Amino acid sequence: MTLLHAVAMLWHKLKQIFKPATHGHFTLVMPGRHFLTILCFMLFGVGISRSQSPLGEAANNQTIAPINIGDQIPDDLWNMPLQVVNHPDGKETITLGEYKDKLIILDFWATWCVPCIRNFPKLHDLQNEFGDKIKVLAVTPEDTDKITKFFTTGVGKEHTYVHSVIADSVLSRYFPHMGVPHIVWINPNGKVLNTTRADEVNTTNVQAVLDDQKTNMLAKVDIDRNKPLFLSDNFGENMELRAYSIFAKGGYSGLPSAGKAKKSKEGKVYGWQFTNLPMMDIYHPIVFRIFESNHERFSFKRMSIEVQENELLTWILKDENSYENFNLYNYELIVPENEADSLYYYMLNDLNRYSHYTASIEKRMIDCLVLVRTSRVDKIKSKGGKIENTFPKSPSILTNRPLSAMLVRLNGNTPFKQPIIDETGYDGNVDIKISAIEDLESLRKELSRYDLDLIPAKRNLNMFVIKDK
Prior knowledge:
The protein is α+β, with helices and mostly antiparallel strands. Helix content is 26%, strand content 25%.
């Protein structure tokens, strides 16, 4: 038995002896931590610094070795006390050993992870469906205060049935991962069967594991996003990566849905990485920066989608908790730093070569709304003060900001299909208050108080155009 194991077991026994009084309401979470530190100090004559504490060793050095798929759960982990909340019997600590001979499903989550929270009801239903045959155990590194607040306010109040390990610094070391939700499957024989995404946790797969049948679950193997996507670890140490590009269709479970820029020491962007995203989410930051380089502001109202199945360009809902993977892409381009200024044009050319679409920026004569002044009287000059922009909420307030700040919001999610452009020629900051943005006529009426108007017109504008090949 290791020193860590001995201390952990002793602590577990003492917790059982020193139970909270039945007439009071208090927690042993923080007292327990202090008591354990003092106990270690008394028994082993060591200081209370992190580097010297036996429990600190477990969390901060190589005492804990990651457990891989196919490995057995070690005795130390089976018997390790874990702090929990929402235990059905009111316990404050448990061990994994309490669930031996069951299928254990560890659900790593965080309060900020919306997909994690959406999965709670499904996992709860599976726990009820299979009863004592399985144990679904949530795990988070977040501390007591944050978790208590989560389960007593907001959306968390709907999920107080979630039995969760909290303040975890142990399980995440045994089962390292880069994103959540992250699921670890431990079969009834104590072997790590798989690590997957949350959508693999369903009745079919659970029953197959219990019946000792083969499953078709896809393993979630996390990738270090600081490295070029899918580049072999055998890439030569003495080699310099000058440029790199990869374009792959289909979702990859070991990566988040995200975009990430690669920057030089001076902050210059010379690469972009997009993972598990539909084409529209890849196009948008590219085109935004191309428009920006031409001193224009891109919005979806400056886009023309001319494809037969435009739904394939964006997210397709699979069920209430997940999206389809078949129309997602993983794409990365890295160019030499001295060619960083051409990065976004290179990216657009890449996507035109390798995707099912062609995309371009074209001049087109289109219907739009033009913001103009109707008099020379200045009724919009700012009086200064606090900077504010609540457009397009009701009321919509613009204070001590330029008109362009209002137009950016109006070109977003508003009732107007036409792009709105500014031809007022007004450069200073303004103060404007609109009671509500419901339709064009009501907006024009309110703008008239400031001698402003939105006039329907045609203009020759740069448009982002997407077509089928």
